[in-house]
Amino acid sequence: MKVRSDILRIYQSLHTWTGICAGILLFIGFFGGALTMFKHPLERWVSAPAALAGALAPQQVDSVVREVLAAHPAAREEFTLHVLRHENNPAPVTWSAGHAGRDIDLNAMRWQASLDEQGKLAAQEVRPSLFGELVDMLHRTGGIPGTLGDEYLGVYLMGVAGVLYFLALVSGVVLLLPTLVKDFFALRKGKNRKRFWLDAHNVIGIASLPFHIVISLTVIVFAFHDQFYDSLQHVVYGEQKMWVRPSGTPGPGDVSKLAPASELVRLAQQEAPGFEVTEMLFMDLESPRPLVRVGVANEDYVVRGAVSGYLLMDPYTGQVLNTSMLPTKSDTWSSIVAPFFALHFGSYGGDWMRWVYFAFGLSGAFLFYSGNLLWVEKRRKNQLRDHAPPAQPRRTAVLAAATVGVCLGSVAGVAAALLAAKWLHATSGNLNTVLMATYYVVFLACVAWAFRRGSARAAPELLALCALAGFAIPATSLLARLAPSLGMWAHGSMGAVGVDLTALVLALLLAWAARLAARRARSGPPDSVWAAAPAAAAPEPAFPQERQA
Amino acid sequence: MSAKPDAIRPDWWSKTFAGAVLGAALALALAGLFAWAGPGGINAREKAQFVMWIMAPLWMAVFSTVYLFRSGLRAVLWLSGANVAAYSLLFYVRSTLG
Lengths: 549, 98
Prior knowledge:
The complex is a heterodimer. By secondary structure, chain A is α+β, with helices and mostly antiparallel strands. Chain A is 56% helix and 9% strand. Chain B has a domain at 32-97. Chain B is elongated, with a radius of gyration of 16 Å.
């Protein structure tokens, strides 16, 4: 297809600048997002074995709920009944005394309650592992600290990156149109390295284009939905109501009259046949508007949440108040909107689809990484025959170092935090603070390292560091099994073992990449930011260099 | 057309302004029109979510094509005109249906 050259030029600039401005932040967003696909297995991997255990009969769960509400007023505001239990939420009932806002409180404590052997209520205050939440925050903010109003500053920046990302997608497609048929699926691994990277960038970009369009639009909505709703309320709806609240009978305000939990589970099950009740969030039990939000999961349906759909019920009467988030009984508009969420969360099709999203997420991260490398390569000054390699412009050296440092730094940081969760679990301080500090220390150290050493040396070194950290994850689990005296643990569940295996595979890939980068630094063209010898100090400039690494 | 059109001027700042600000305003107006005049009308249950969701694609559709205007000034003028038209229609619809 023919496109006018002035249009191509404009979209070329647009593609370059939007990519450069947003690429690094989006890399972290995509890498973090790929990990959040398996947030629960990661949570299970880091969670220490809990003392509270044992399956409880429905009547026993009912009495736990009753006794908790009688003895702990804080739980009357909000508590969660975990119908489905794993390593990371071993107790049937949990609640926290503090507020539940959008930001993470590293000092947050959580109460959990179950029955002891004598059948008496055993409640204890524990510090929940926030590892999954931290990864989620990294995904949503890129790790940029600070808040703006009651939202993270990083979320808004990610929203801006989402806008730039959409522009980059459109301009990228326009650029590819004239040569689409010829270039698509061509992966020329010839003499020209740049051609190879460009081909790889194009194939991945075009092949996953629908995914990327969905992600960019949903990112914009997730970042700015408050502003969108506010402007709609002011300009469009005015006096009209945007929402119809569920109207049940006013709550009696007496928690002793609450319907038994097992009865609520039974009613929810009846309302959503084929779905599995996962957890129930009880809210504002003493207020006139008591509510229980029931999580219902079924892999065969497109659901609204990250893992499940929801059902809103009156916790006193068991009356179903709202089914708009239950796929089988949703209203028209909700069922049109649900896929937007599901397409971002990958919450349809079960684990199979989660793996697809994991792969898409990592390939997206590769798209941004390779895009930046292409920018650097395009601006490189070529070495003239019989001349010393030229000094490369400063901006390419800076961008190359930033790309390598920030991208690989975030990978190494997450792996290090995962390791810290096991190695430093016995810390006297707050483990969540330790996890957060570990991430930032490793991340910032990698960035500093990349700038200090230059991209050529730092790339293989940081890749090797990432690979090493990746290998250490399954090694730690193995060590925990072999040497229980260390006090660490390794869960045998599929989810936890899956974390180990995935880390191993990624570590192998990273080690391979480190080898390639090292070879390129050693024997690649010297007139490149990826050549290890500083251009100005190259000893034998006329030495015939091998052009292909 | 036989005459070769003039090359498009980049005009990055004015076009980006037009796409970012005027494009967003236009998306709001169009979403608003859908809210009032679209299926179900303004009071349809849970419709507000969908109305909010279509703002992003509308905005991005404008933003990503604004660079095709021949100059930044044209982009600003055309999109301003589109905004005036869309908001006039929106307020007319609001006052007749509301």
